[in-house]
Specification:
Blueprint: H1 15-26, E1 30-31, H2 32-39, H3 43-55, E2 59-66, E3 69-76, H4 78-99
Antiparallel strand pairs: 1-3, 2-3
Protein name: Winged helix DNA-binding domain
Domain Winged helix DNA-binding: 16-95
Pfam family, one: HTH_34
């Protein structure tokens, strides 16, 4: 049975990272505060998970100023979208094998 889990992407084992990618799959872009509120996580927790996804090139982070206020936004990359879709397919495949 364990061999069916080989295609599961470890980057998405964290529920926060899973949440980040899920949100970005249905939104082209989201700002830090909106994502933090949506997921119910702390600043530091969100920052560490977004850094991890950014280092894998699954998301891009854009920092800018709007007026005098800093604004950080996140967007998925093509690589991130592909990896997340493959992860979901692997989960679905695993669940189908378990049902039998």
């Amino acid at each position: 049975m364990i061999e069916h889990l080989e295609d599961i992407n470890k980057a998405f084992e964290s529920k926060v990272r899973l949440g980040i990618m899920s949100v970005l799959m249905v939104n082209d872009e989201i700002d830090f505060n909106s994502l933090k509120e949506l997921l119910g996580v702390t600043d530091g927790n969100l920052a560490s998970h977004t850094r991890a996804l950014e280092s894998l090139e699954y998301i891009v982070v854009k920092k800018q100023f709007v007026g005098r206020k800093p604004r950080t936004t996140f967007a998925r990359t093509g690589k991130g979208e592909k990896a997340f879709r493959e992860h979901l397919q692997a989960l679905e495949s695993f669940l189908n094998k378990v049902e039998r």
